[in-house]
Write a structure and sequence with these properties.
Layout: E1 2-8, E2 10-11, E3 29-30, E4 38-44, E5 50-57, E6 68-71, H1 73-92, H2 95-101, H3 105-110, H4 118-124
Antiparallel strand pairs: 1-5, 1-6, 2-3, 4-5
Length: about 140
């Protein structure tokens, strides 16, 4: 089994202070030291603060504090879906991205997030990002 967590970065100086109101600590930032942490998504909250949605083994103990919470799979997946839908809206309103993707706004908005598994959610996002262009 797997646990689904939402976490902010921690201050690089003490590794325990979660950065929930700033994007940089006194000595930078890093991921928290959590056994088996496997970051799947990097997002920005409504206040412009970076955070992650990650998975850990079921055997990992999660002590919830401000900046670290264990989530039910459905809640975790719904948070991913919210970001996916926001990205679709951004892309559908960007003529340059639409041209790079060779898609219409309607085609972008019709894309769906497959919430069957973490892997299926991860594979849904590349369709919203054009391939890099080498000069």
């Amino acid at each position: 089994m797997t646990k689904y967590i939402k976490h902010y970065y921690v201050d690089g100086a003490d590794l325990t202070t979660f950065l929930t109101d700033t994007n940089i600590g006194s000595d930078g930032k890093t991921h928290p030291r959590i056994d088996g942490l496997d970051v799947k998504f990097w997002f920005v909250d409504n206040n412009g603060i970076d955070y992650c949605l990650s998975v850990v083994p079921d055997s990992t103990t999660i002590t919830q504090v401000t900046g670290l919470e264990e989530m039910a799979y459905d809640d975790w997946a719904n948070e991913v879906e919210t970001h996916f839908n926001n990205r679709k809206t951004d892309v559908s309103n960007d003529a340059v991205l639409l041209e790079q993707l060779n898609m219409t706004s309607e085609e972008v908005m019709a894309l769906a997030l497959n919430k069957d598994s973490v892997e299926s959610m991860l594979s849904s996002f590349p369709g919203l990002n054009p391939a890099p262009v080498n000069p």
